[in-house]
């Protein structure tokens, strides 16, 4: 990769605005990773839900430990791509010069959930409902907003990470307004009157469109600037969907690695939590996974894995999980989509057919038997109500209830949408614990004091 190409991708938005030169990749990506790790948004992930509530046990995963595991798996995937990209004669595959460094892939993986609101997907849906007339809410879009504006590293440009890191976290390269434009069902829903009794609100109708906010369009355009017009058009292309939101269908190279790492962590590590918590029985695993036709076709492991996974020993369970992750990581290869010109869009990391099929099976198993069971959905519902009631109260009484810093932003906001975005930013940045305590302080008569430090 020549130096001019490198400088395009190591450039920071603040450098671009001031016409300052870019710094070397080895410095920039290491500092991107450091900025993520030292950010308040990253620390708050320790008190945000992965699957189980924070009070369930200290053992189970939070968004912080999940993000750390995704980063570790991401590095492992890059290492494997390096291993398979060098032949016995020492000749490197063409994709090798475009692989992300370990610093870069870890920065992307560690940052991928920064915009995750309190109470998991339920909190995301609740915020999207309250922001439905004001540009929407979506976790990935909120992540880019933290990188672009909210992060504390710069006064006006957020964490101000490099162009390539910002590209890597953009899972859905399309603007909210463009995504909903063709969804007549959703547009009709937007005309419905406000529901004030949130307990009667059918939340599954308000899943957020996978997109980025219009407010970050300038940064979005800057990130994509090195690509040709044809590449940009194809990358942002939306696929029509009957009675659902249109979605983009392409990811950048680094995003494909991050998403594989995320899927492996979700499908296997979250399974470990469910087994440890005895939410998934061995018989169910045997029936729905080991005897599933998909697994029988590829049979990536034998019954010894089941014995280890469901053993009384935590060491046995951990050994099984480690072996499963290893099988997935070692199956990675580099594909090419020749419709794209630029290597960062043309090269696509993928798992082999069997590993892809089995990983999808594991994800479906976790979704069916853990994510969507009543015990988990009930806690999600409670979290949604907390978010909805907090937003409703803050919207009605911003001067009295918003913290002074947020209220100053609110007063300076140029329009109503910008004002509502300030409230959304405040709530999205809350941890589960903070949101629950603020709710109790405002709505439980026996709770709260002027001396409370939330």
From TrEMBL:
SMART domains: HDc
Domain HD, residue spans: 63-267
UniProt cross-references to PANTHER family, sorted A to Z: DEOXYGUANOSINETRIPHOSPHATE TRIPHOSPHOHYDROLASE-LIKE PROTEIN 2, DEOXYNUCLEOSIDE TRIPHOSPHATE TRIPHOSPHOHYDROLASE
Assigned keywords, A-Z: Hydrolase
Family statement: Belongs to the dGTPase family. Type 2 subfamily.
Keyword Hydrolase: yes
PROSITE patterns, sorted: HD
Gene3D superfamilies: Hypothetical protein af1432
Protein name per the record: Deoxyguanosinetriphosphate triphosphohydrolase-like protein
Top-rank taxon, per record: Bacteria
HAMAP family reported in the protein's UniProt record: dGTPase_type2 (MF_01212)
């Amino acid at each position: 990769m020549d130096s001019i190409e490198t400088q395009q991708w190591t450039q920071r938005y603040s450098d671009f605005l001031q016409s300052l030169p870019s710094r070397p990749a080895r410095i920039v990506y290491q500092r991107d990773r450091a900025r993520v790790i030292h950010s308040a948004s990253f620390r708050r992930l320790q008190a945000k839900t992965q699957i189980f509530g924070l009070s369930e046990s200290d053992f189970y995963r939070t968004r912080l430990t999940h993000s750390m595991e995704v980063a570790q798996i991401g590095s492992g995937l890059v290492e494997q791509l390096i291993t398979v990209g060098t032949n016995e004669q020492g000749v490197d595959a063409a994709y090798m010069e475009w692989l992300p460094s370990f610093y870069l892939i870890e920065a992307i993986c560690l940052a991928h959930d920064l915009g995750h609101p309190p109470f998991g997907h339920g909190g995301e849906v609740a915020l999207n409902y309250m922001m439905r007339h004001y540009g929407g809410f979506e976790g990935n879009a909120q992540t880019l907003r933290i990188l672009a504006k909210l992060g504390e590293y710069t006064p006006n440009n957020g964490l101000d990470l490099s162009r390539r890191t910002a590209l890597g976290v953009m899972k859905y390269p399309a603007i909210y307004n463009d995504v909903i434009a063709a969804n007549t069902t959703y547009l009709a829903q937007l005309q419905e009157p406000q529901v004030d009794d949130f307990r009667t609100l059918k939340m599954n109708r308000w899943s957020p469109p996978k997109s980025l906010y219009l407010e970050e369009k300038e940064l979005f355009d800057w990130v994509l600037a090195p690509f040709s017009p044809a590449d940009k058009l194809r990358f942002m292309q939306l696929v029509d969907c009957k009675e659902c939101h249109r979605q983009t269908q392409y990811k950048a190279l680094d995003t494909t690695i991050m998403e594989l790492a995320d899927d492996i962590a979700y499908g296997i590590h979250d399974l470990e939590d469910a087994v440890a918590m005895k939410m998934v029985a061995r018989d169910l695993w045997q029936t729905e996974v080991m005897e599933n036709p998909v697994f029988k076709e590829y049979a990536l492991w034998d019954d010894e894995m089941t014995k280890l996974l469901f053993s009384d020993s935590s060491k046995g369970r951990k050994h099984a999980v480690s072996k499963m992750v290893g099988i997935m990581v070692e199956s990675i290869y580099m594909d090419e989509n020749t419709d794209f010109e630029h290597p960062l869009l043309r090269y696509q990391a993928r798992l082999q057919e069997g590993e892809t099929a089995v990983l999808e099976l594991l994800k479906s198993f976790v979704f069916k038997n853990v994510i969507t069971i009543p015990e988990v959905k009930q806690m999600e519902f409670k979290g949604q109500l907390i978010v909805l009631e907090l937003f409703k109260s803050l919207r009605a009484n911003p001067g009295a209830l918003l913290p002074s810093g947020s209220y100053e932003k609110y007063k300076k906001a140029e329009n109503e949408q910008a004002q509502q975005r300030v409230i959304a930013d405040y709530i999205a940045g809350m941890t589960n614990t903070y949101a629950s305590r603020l709710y109790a302080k405002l709505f439980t008569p026996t709770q709260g004091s002027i001396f409370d430090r939330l």
